[in-house]
Amino acid sequence: MSAHTDAVTAIVLAAGAGTRMKSARAKVLHEIAGRSMIEHALVAVAGAGVHTTVAVVGHDREQVSAAIAAHDPAVVQAVQEEQNGTGHAVRVALEALDAPPTGTVVITYGDVPLLTAQTLAELLVDHRAAGRAVTILSAEVDDPTGYGRIVRGDDGAVLAIREHRDASADELAVREINSGILVVDGPFLDHAVAGLRSDNSQSELYLTDIVGIAVAEGRPVGAHVLEDVWQTEGVNDRVQLARLGHELNRRIVRGWMAAGVTVVDPATTWIDSAVTLAPDVTLLPGTQLLGATEVGEGATIGPDTTLRNVEVGEAATIIRTHGSDSVVGARATVGPFAYLRPGTELGEDGKIGTFVEVKNSVVGAGAKVPHLSYVGDADIGEGANVGAGTIFANYDGVTKNRSSIGRHARTASNNTFVAPVTVGDGAFTGAGATIREDVPPGALAVSAGPQRNMDGWVADKRPGTPSDRAARESESATTLEETGE
Ligand code: UD1
Ligand code: CA
């Protein structure tokens, strides 16, 4: 087995049913840390220097295939119509290759999401250094129920993997288990899976039987014991999914702290796998950073903030905010209680303040929307200030239209901008104005007419109400004062 090339092929098994998830979604498409389990598996093998990856799909094949193709179209997909066991799945994978593998093959599962590229790389190094035909990734667990056991001889040499259901009482007592992750010499694998038989309690082709075959043929076999048992754990139900999701998050948060991020409360901070954080970011309690969120140096996020696919500039501050698919410039401030919907772009030093919702809009550098507003489909120029309680009425019930506010414009409280409308650079508006027509640069626009008081309206239209009584009491008190009685 020595004259092989060092090309590495990965086989990712993902054809199983996942009945215990009780889900319309395929098991391997359930997510932790913002990635489906199959994506975690593909990211790990890709990071371990694999040249060709074959994924074996079967159950919920359409969903799983589409997700794999979307993640990486270069992954070869092999369809296992019936799940006749892990050995059968590997046969199907090998048949899908143009030629039998001449190098090394890594076999892993689509439902073991904490396994890292580093562990796979170390497993490959160990396998090659020892010159083995098969290297098993094993682990010592407290409760080995259900797992295949590593059967060792008196000298400690690995002899076989025995499935739980086929194990003797002595073998059942073994706590060293087969994680299912194996590294195998390619030509040996091709030969060994061809010789598998289904004479076992499940009448399946067990991949694990290749260990016994190697031993019988005098080929070297060994196990690489992984201390970090979490990395070998699979997911069969939603309790395990949450448990591994929690542990993965703990690892991600710890990693960012090691890289110079302050996390005030790791227990309530959730960070997806693909998030990137610069040094001296501070995350306050209750923060969730999801998707491809990127946070620049010195920014402070939280408390109680959820950002998905948001790019946050240096030294920006985001307080009690829900945001997605948005950009926040350097030194800008957002919140408390802001809602950034897709397409929000806040410029450097800008402000989106309290109880403000923004969608598909640009708020320019240094521009401010400080209070109680809805900004939809608008372009707000650099240095402009939008008054409290402003609504950009972007939707006429049929189409959405854009509006724009010029540079250094000052719009007043409680304005409505009926789109499409343009307020020129440096223009002002009056309080309560409804702006339906364009405002030239430098102009003041007022729309409310002069105030008109209709005396006696309440006595006439709302007689006998508490308002009417209050008005009459106020009137007679004034009369008494005036007559001096
Ligand atoms: C398998 C191993 C066992 C190991 C355990 C670790 C065998 C015979 N047994 O047992 O030694 O301790 O994993 O979790 O290999 N799959 C397919 N096609 C099939 C069968 C399985 O793609 O026909 C996939 C499944 O989707 C899953 C993986 O292979 O991702 C393991 O299958 P599973 O049925 O969970 O194997 P176990 O019986 O638990
Ligand atoms: Ca399993």
UniProtKB/TrEMBL annotation:
Its main location: cytoplasm. Residues 1-238 are annotated as: Pyrophosphorylase. Residues 476-485 have a biased composition (Polar residues). InterPro entries: Bifunctional_GlmU, GlmU-like, GlmU_C_LbH, MobA-like_NTP_Trfase, Nucleotide-diphossugar_trans, Trimer_LpxA-like_sf. The active site is at residue 371. Pathway: Nucleotide-sugar biosynthesis; UDP-N-acetyl-alpha-D-glucosamine biosynthesis; N-acetyl-alpha-D-glucosamine 1-phosphate from alpha-D-glucosamine 6-phosphate (route II): step 2/2; Nucleotide-sugar biosynthesis; UDP-N-acetyl-alpha-D-glucosamine biosynthesis; UDP-N-acetyl-alpha-D-glucosamine from N-acetyl-alpha-D-glucosamine 1-phosphate: step 1/1; Bacterial outer membrane biogenesis; LPS lipid A biosynthesis. GO terms for molecular function: glucosamine-1-phosphate N-acetyltransferase activity; magnesium ion binding; UDP-N-acetylglucosamine diphosphorylase activity. Mg(2+) binds at residues 111, 236. It catalyses: N-acetyl-alpha-D-glucosamine 1-phosphate + UTP + H(+) = UDP-N-acetyl-alpha-D-glucosamine + diphosphate; alpha-D-glucosamine 1-phosphate + acetyl-CoA = N-acetyl-alpha-D-glucosamine 1-phosphate + CoA + H(+). Coiled coil: none annotated. Binds 1 Mg(2+) ion per subunit. It is found in: Cytoplasm. Gene3D superfamilies: Hexapeptide repeat proteins, Spore Coat Polysaccharide Biosynthesis Protein SpsA, Chain A. Its EC number is 2.7.7.23, 2.3.1.157. Residues 239-259 are annotated as: Linker. Residues 447-485 are annotated as: Disordered. Keywords: Acyltransferase, Cell shape, Cell wall biogenesis/degradation, Cytoplasm, Magnesium, Metal-binding, Multifunctional enzyme, Nucleotidyltransferase, Peptidoglycan synthesis, Repeat, Transferase. Pfam families: NTP_transf_3. Residues 458-475 have a biased composition (Basic and acidic residues). One of its GO terms (biological process) is cell wall organization. Acetyl-CoA binds at residues 388, 394-395, 413, 431. Residues 10-140 form the MobA-like NTP transferase domain. Catalyzes the last two sequential reactions in the de novo biosynthetic pathway for UDP-N-acetylglucosamine (UDP-GlcNAc). The C-terminal domain catalyzes the transfer of acetyl group from acetyl coenzyme A to glucosamine-1-phosphate (GlcN-1-P) to produce N-acetylglucosamine-1-phosphate (GlcNAc-1-P), which is converted into UDP-GlcNAc by the transfer of uridine 5-monophosphate (from uridine 5-triphosphate), a reaction catalyzed by the N-terminal domain. In the C-terminal section; belongs to the transferase hexapeptide repeat family. This is Bifunctional protein GlmU. It comes from Aeromicrobium endophyticum. The gene is glmU.
